[in-house]
User: Which sequence fits this backbone?
C-alpha cells in the first residue's frame, strides 16, 4: 500500500520581490512500513519536503497524497486535525518541554489530540516508555537526561498516538555517532513492532546507509532514488 505519493511537487518561497524555488517538480512514492531517508546537503530542500508531507506548508504546484488523503489544499484546521490523526514528529533538537517530566512529555500529544480516559493514557505512555527503554527515567525532567535519552523520549512521544507515519527532520544531527546509530536502530525496531512508516532526513552519508529506501535531493531536484529491500 502506498502511504505517500508526490507528483511533480514544487515549492517556491516568496519574500517580498524575491522568489526562491526550494523543491522542483519532485515525484516519488513511499510504501506503508518503509524506513526511508531524504538525503542532501544543507539547502537542498529536505526540510521543505518534510514540511509539505507533514502538512505544515502548502506546495506551490503538483499533488501530494499522504495516508490516502490529498493534502495539497487542506486548511490550517484540517491540517492540524490530519496531523493529530496520522503523523508523529521527531526534531533534531528534541523539542521536549523542559518543565514537564519524561512521562508528561510523552503523554502531552494524547492530551492534545486524543480523548482517552486517564488510565488508557497512562497505560499507553508506560508501554511507549518501556518500548524505548526509558521507564526508569519517567519522573525525570529533560535536563536530567542525556541527548540520546531525550531523543528516545521524543521517539516515544512521536509514536504514542499510534500514527501511521513518523517524520523526523535530522533526528541524529545533535547526537554522537554511536548514539545516532542506536536511535536509528530504535526507530527501525519501532517500525518492526508497530508497523509505523518512518521518513527521516539527513545530510550524513553514513546515516543514510541505515535507511532501506533513499531519496537524494540536490538543489531542490530529486537526483536519485534507491532501495535495498
Ligand atoms: N521560509 C522560507 N522562506 C524563504 N526561503 C526558504 C524558506 N525555507 C527555506 N527556504 C530556502 O529553500 C531552500 C531549501 O531549504 P530547506 O530548509 O528545505 O533545505 P534543507 O535541505 O532542509 O537544509 P538544512 O539541511 O540546512 O536544514 C534554501 O535555499 C532555503 O534558503
Assistant:
Amino acid at each position: 500500500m502506498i502511504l505517500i505519493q508526490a507528483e511533480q511537487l514544487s515549492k517556491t518561497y516568496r519574500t517580498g520581490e524575491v522568489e526562491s524555488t526550494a523543491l522542483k517538480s519532485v515525484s516519488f512514492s513511499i510504501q506503508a512500513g518503509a524506513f526511508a531517508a531524504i538525503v542532501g546537503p544543507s539547502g537542498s530542500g529536505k526540510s521543505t519536503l518534510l514540511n509539505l508531507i507533514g502538512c505544515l506548508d502548502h506546495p506551490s504546484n503538483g499533488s501530494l497524497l499522504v495516508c490516502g488523503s490529498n493534502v495539497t489544499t487542506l486548511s490550517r484546521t484540517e491540517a492540524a486535525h490530519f496531523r493529530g490523526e496520522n503523523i508523529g514528529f521527531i526534531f533534531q533538537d528534541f523539542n521536549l518541554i523542559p518543565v514537564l517530566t519524561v512521562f508528561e512529555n510523552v503523554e502531552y500529544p494524547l492530551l492534545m489530540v486524543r480523548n482517552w480516559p486517564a488510565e488508557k493514557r497512562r497505560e499507553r505512555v508506560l508501554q511507549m516508555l518501556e518500548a524505548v527503554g526509558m521507564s526508569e527515567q519517567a519522573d525525570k525532567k529533560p535536563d536530567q537526561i542525556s541527548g540520546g535519552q531525550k531523543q528516545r523520549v521524543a521517539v516515544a512521544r512521536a509514536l504514542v498516538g499510534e500514527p501511521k507515519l513518523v517524520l523526523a527532520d535530522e533526528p541524529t544531527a545533535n547526537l554522537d555517532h554511536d548514539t545516532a546509530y542506536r536511535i536509528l536502530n530504535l526507530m527501525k525496531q519501532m517500525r518492526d513492532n508497530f508497523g509505523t512508516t518512518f521518513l527521516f532526513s539527513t545530510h550524513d552519508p553514513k546515516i543514510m546507509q541505515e535507511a532501506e529506501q533513499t531519496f537524494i535531493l540536490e538543489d531542490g531536484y530529486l537526483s536519485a532514488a534507491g532501495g535495498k529491500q
